[in-house]
Amino acid sequence: MNLTLHLTDNCNMDCIYCIREKCPRDMIEEVLYKACDLAFSKGPRAGLCFFGGEPLLKKDLIYKALDYCEERSALTGKRFDCKMTTNGSLLDEEFLKRAVKANMGIGLSFDGTAQNISRIFAGGQPTLAIVEEKAKLLLKYMPDSTALATIAPQAVPYYYESVKYLHGLGFKNISLVIAYGRKVNWTDEDLDALREQLVLTCGYVKELFMKGEHVFIGPIYSKIGECIRDKNPSERCHLGVRQMPVTPDGRLYPCTSFIGDDAYLLGNVFDGVNDKKVMEIAQKASTPETCIDCDLVKRCTNSCGCANRMNTGNENTVSPLQCTYERMLIEISDALGEELYQADPVRFAKEFG
Ligand code: SF4
Ligand code: SF4
């Protein structure tokens, strides 16, 4: 089974959209090893995602988990996969060498040229220069790593140039999401500006496509791909069935935004998973009533219970912000998809099929 290990609630950054309450709580070894055992207890493979706060504050725990899980994998014959999401500031060669050996996938949270606006160190110092150097180091060891940019309203004017900047650094996988949660406040003007930035970004995607260069720029690529594969993105939301967060003290929840709510507690690493509760909660992830008759219902992330809960307090209620954003994204991505198809249908099928 797949577990997301919140190794610590602490972080050395203070991002303007961060939804986590930073407090001095780290995972202890006993919880770590029990979580690894749990990951191996169900299904044909074990998956761990190292997460925080900032997981590299607990490098020692990551090394221990890797050694332990590789041993378990050899003993049981079960495959072990691992990944990590990090702000990158603490990456170093020693860690990257170990991560390469473990075949770890690393997502670097990096907001491009908006970095110093939205992602600052706790204490207020800028982070761009250091994270840029760490990004280069990461790409030297793992050229397929993903840059994960979170776009807050203040970062909207930097969207297009950030995509070009991150690509210029060498990222071939760039994923951009808009910031949700209580710390951000989107206005109509921000959303109009976002539309302009998305259109500019589509122009860049077209430029790369015409040059025959493959650069995955989510969410535009995802929307085009899901359209032609007729895949419903809501299928991705399983509220704890496929991926469960583990808190530093070992409690299990359906997804990050449910952490701390006892009504959604799915068990703990010592006593195991309450399967009945998992199924009960997974069934709650249904299409919101307001979306049932919408033409875009199969193209939209309306059923992401985690995002819905973060925005509206209810996993089955979509916020006006998400609805507006999804409509905009689908419209703009579809127009680009049509253009790319007309320009080169064979390459289009290869790229998005
Ligand atoms: S790096 Fe992540 S955990 Fe740390 S402040 Fe930023 S968003 Fe929060
Ligand atoms: S576009 Fe809006 S109404 Fe339509 S499915 Fe998405 S969230 Fe629901």
Shape: globular
The string of secondary-structure elements, in order, is EHEHEHEHHEHEHEHEEEEHHHH
Q: How can the largest sheet be summarized?
A: 8 strands, parallel
Low-pLDDT residue intervals, each spanning 5 or more residues: none
How many helical stretches? Answer: 12
CATH class of the largest domain: Alpha Beta
CATH topology of the largest domain: TIM Barrel
Adjacency order of strands in the biggest sheet: 7-6-5-4-3-2-1-8
In total, the number of strands is 11
Ligand identities:
iron/sulfur cluster
Q: What percent of residues are in strands?
A: 5-15%
Q: What is the CA-atom radius of gyration, in angstroms?
A: 20 Å
Distance N to C terminus: 29 Å
Give the proportion of residues in helices: 40-55%
Find the CATH superfamily of the largest domain: Aldolase class I
Average pLDDT for all residues: 92
Q: Total domains, how many?
A: 2
Structural class: alpha/beta
- Second CATH tier, the architecture of the largest domain: Alpha-Beta Barrel
Question: Could you characterize the architecture of this molecule?
Answer:
The protein is an alpha/beta fold and 353 residues long. It has 2 domains: 2-185 and 214-285, Aldolase class I (TIM Barrel, Alpha-Beta Barrel), CATH 3.20.20.70; 186-213 and 286-353, no CATH class. The protein has 12 helices and 11 strands. It has helices spanning 29-41, 59-76, 93-101, 115-118, 128-141, 159-169, 188-210, 220-229, 275-282, 305-312, 320-343, 345-352; strands spanning 2-6, 45-51, 79-86, 105-109, 146-151, 173-178, 216-218, 243-246, 251-252, 267-268, 272-273. The strands form 2 sheets. Strands 7-6-5-4-3-2-1-8 form an 8-stranded parallel beta sheet. Helix 3 links the parallel strand 3 and strand 4 (105-109). Helix 6 runs parallel beside helix 7 (188-210), helix 8 (220-229) packs across helix 11 and helix 11 (320-343) crosses helix 12 (345-352). The mean pLDDT is 92. The site of one iron/sulfur cluster has 12 residues, from loops.
